[in-house]
Design a protein that fits this description.
- The structure holds 2 protein chains of 2 kinds.
- Chain A has helices at 2-20, 24-44, 48-72, 84-107, 123-130, 132-152.
- By secondary structure, chain A is mostly helical.
- Among the domains of chain A are: 1-75; 124-154.
- In chain A, helix 5 (123-130) crosses helix 6 (132-152).
- The longest helix of chain A has 25 residues, at 48-72.
- By secondary structure, chain B is mainly α.
- Chain B has a single domain (3-93), classed as Orthogonal Bundle (Helix Hairpins), CATH 1.10.287.
- In chain B, 79% of the residues lie in helices and 0% in strands.
- The longest helix of chain B is centred in the C-terminal third of the chain and has 33 residues, at 57-89.
- Chain B is elongated, with a radius of gyration of 17 Å.
- Classes of the chains: A mainly alpha, B mainly alpha.
- At the A-B interface, helix 1, helix 2, helix 3, helix 4 and helix 5 of A face helix 1, helix 2 and helix 3 of B.
């Protein structure tokens, strides 16, 4: 459990680094490291498929897409962020964490526990038999993504 | 509910706070999108932690996998829109997007 808490703390710290870092490339890499830690947390929870997806897709593919976009938009110059949000962030964050743990501790015995039901079968059974409709949704979303990217990057005709 | 679940929920809420803070204070479009990504990490952690403490890891995993696929599609589309916006406004500043003039 101790290791899990260390990993979760690392996840939050890298996420903070990702939003506060001045350099966008550093931000993207911090985000990838946060994804990597989240993937390891998933592995330790016994969710191997989710861990593999998190590491390969989110830490790999999305980081590549981010770095590609940063490289393509680098010519437009940097946006000057005001320093105040970065300076005030630790204060807000500490206050939020205190409230967060206080509320969670207060809720600890108040929420009625739902019954635990042990699962049977494998991940494939659950994904293909119980969540079949989700797969249709995923296909629709992937196709929508592909068509929208194609529409956004289409070449203009000469008469336009 | 067990204390493990509340621990995960507390960290997940921390991630959500970090993401929302980024969305509220930053001006760079790519930075804002990184904030959305941080929020999505918090959501997937909450989903899987809920399944984990109720010993329903398989179902939670399948939901997380669905979520990740949707996330990738969203990222691809959003980054394409960001590139187009940058070409149009010649800047990554979100404040320059206030005009809706075609």
């Amino acid at each position: 459990m101790m290791l899990q808490i260390v990993l979760l703390t690392g996840l939050v710290l890298f996420s903070i680094l990702a939003i506060l870092s001045k350099d966008l490339i550093k931000s993207a890499i911090s985000l990838a490291l946060a994804s990597l830690l989240l993937g390891i947390i998933f592995f330790r929870m016994g969710a191997h498929y989710a861990g593999v997806f998190e590491i390969s897709v989110v830490a790999g593919l999305i980081t590549v897409l981010f770095i590609l976009t940063i490289a393509l938009t680098k010519a437009e110059g940097e946006v000057r962020e005001s320093k105040l949000p970065k300076l005030v962030f630790p204060l807000f964050f500490v206050v939020f964490i205190l409230i967060d743990f206080f509320v969670m501790k207060g809720l600890l015995q108040k929420i009625p526990a739902l019954p635990e039901t042990a699962e049977q079968g494998t991940f494939g059974d659950v994904l293909w038999k119980q969540r079949t409709f989700d797969l249709i949704g995923q296909l629709a979303v992937i196709l929508a993504g592909v068509f929208s990217v194609l529409a956004l990057f289409r070449k203009r005709n000469k008469d336009e | 509910m067990s204390s493990t679940w509340f621990l995960y929920m507390a960290f997940s809420a921390g991630l959500l706070f970090v993401g929302v803070y980024c969305l509220l204070t930053m001006k760079n479009v790519i930075k804002l999108f990184i904030g959305i990504e941080v929020i999505s990490k918090g959501v997937s952690l909450a989903l899987l932690a809920s399944g984990f403490v109720k010993k329903n890891t398989l179902l939670a995993q399948s939901l997380v996998v669905t979520f990740i696929v949707v996330e990738v599609s969203l990222v691809a589309t959003a980054l394409a829109i960001i590139i187009n916006i940058t070409k149009h406004t010649k800047s990554l500043d979100v404040r320059k997007l206030t005009k809706l003039k075609g």
